[in-house]
Amino acid sequence: MENWYVKNLGDAMLACDEQDRIEACFRSAREAEGCSDKVAAFARHESDGRLHCEVKLYFSPASVDIAKALGAMCCAQPSVHGLALLVGSEAAWGVLFAEDEQ
Fold this sequence. Notes:
Shape: globular
Mean pLDDT: 85
């Protein structure tokens, strides 16, 4: 199993500027690497039982260099439920996630 990467942006009310900055950096890096369907980033709002949710960005295993440059940490593959494609090809869904999760 290949490692995914996660970056917690914190409180969703305050994360917009940081998410926009990371999205722009990721887009530039992705284009420089050839736009593979395996290079993608996803976002999800997670509350983990707390009152306020946090924004977490998940980077695919092929995004290792970009993820590490952005300070993301290794994690398990996220569940597809609640994820939104932040940067990457729509084909990334089929390439990165098993069909039975979609």
